[in-house]
Please model this.
Amino acid sequence: MPTPSNPLKAVRGTRDLLPPDTALWNRVEFIARSVFSRYGFGEIRTPIFEDTSLFARGVGEETDIVSKEMYTWEDRARAQSEKAQSLTLRPENTAGVVRAYIEHNLGDSGQLQKLFYIGPQFRRERPQRGRYRQFWQIGVEVLGPVSSGSESPLRDAEVLEMLATLLDELGVKNWQLALNSVGSATDRPRYVAALKAALAPIKHQLCPDNQRRAETNPLRVLDSKDPADQALIDGLPKIADYLDDSSREHFSQVRAALDACGVPYTVNPRLVRGLDYYTRTTFEFTVPDGSGLGTQNALLGGGRYDGLSEMLGGPRAPGIGFAIGEDRLILTLQAQAEADAAAKAGVPHSSQSHRDEWEAPKLDAYIAPLGPERNAAALALARELRRAGLSVEVGDGSFRLKKSFEAADRAARHIVILGEDELTSGILTVKTFATGEQVKIEKAALVDRLKS
Ligand code: HAM
Model:
């Protein structure tokens, strides 16, 4: 039973986002939308839950996400005409987007589909800073029939260049792009076989997690962070040596286009990523230690998934995309702003101070009715001003004048006093906080005065 000393709380791994932080979330989403529209992307919104088999088939049964982290339940039939169905809260959105692409025959247009999404995802991971059970992603998927150019390395480079532009416009500093090619659907099994063979004699020396991965999903051993295993992992075969000519050529063209755009990157042969659908280009953007993310330093990840549509029963539709962890992006921007403020002032700063930078501007006016009997008139005046495009807060007639002034000074640039005299004469008292000036003006001139 919840009690005042033991009230109900948000579920472990989930968070409430509150003002003023939500102002930063909105700013980030606004900038993302504006960058995406400059690159010709349209928004897609897919359901938050899907048939469980979508993720089992798309993301891969052996991945951590599907085997350990999904929120899955048996949805009972409510009518004879319905069947019980296993449903899952989406742990990621690429599979859902490709399902929608197939379901709505988006490939029939022959055009490249350039889609973006912003929304919550759900994974039952061990919560820590930057890792939540409900988290937000800002993602992009570019896919289409081969004839639309969907397989071209230009698409990979354009997506990466767009990301570099977006992170720069958001003000993320010191980001690093790590790039790799995990090869085509035929390169990968050859490489996995070689990896398994190389792992067999050394497996017993690895940590228990890596021993299990060596059996179930050997590629995952490569991005293990276990310090004791690093030397052994460094000695494993590199995927670059198993790429066929066309994958190798594709990767070199992606790199050449990035070079031409001046987007910096490093090639990381161990970057394989945790989802099964990836082919050829894979990438991650990270920020250096001390950027507010702790050990969760991957701001975003993505790559190509040339066979995903067929895996889900659709037509051939090569594609590439990414998802930014929005929670991590926000933590990074907040930590950066704090560090900047501290550097400027030369002293450690409270987290409140940097908030001014993204907090919504003050309202135009605060209306202070003098006495409860003036409340109705105050609301009517607020309605008039708001309809004229002003941002307005209304106080309450029960407040003492001092309290109204304090509340108004916090919230707004001007206070409008509404007492009996004002109502009968139509002359209003307005104080402007920035200058301290107080004037009496006709109601007809009020809107202009408050805009100033
Ligand atoms: P992912 O690497 O699993 O890829 O997730 C992308 C990003 O989501 C991560 O880099 C991270 O910033 C964020 N993220 C993941 N898990 C959590 C969590 N528990 N808490 C907070 N943030 C998290 C995908 O999801 C792919 N669908 C990306 C993609 C799109 N590939 C191609 N198209």
Summary: The chain is about 35% helix and 20% strand.
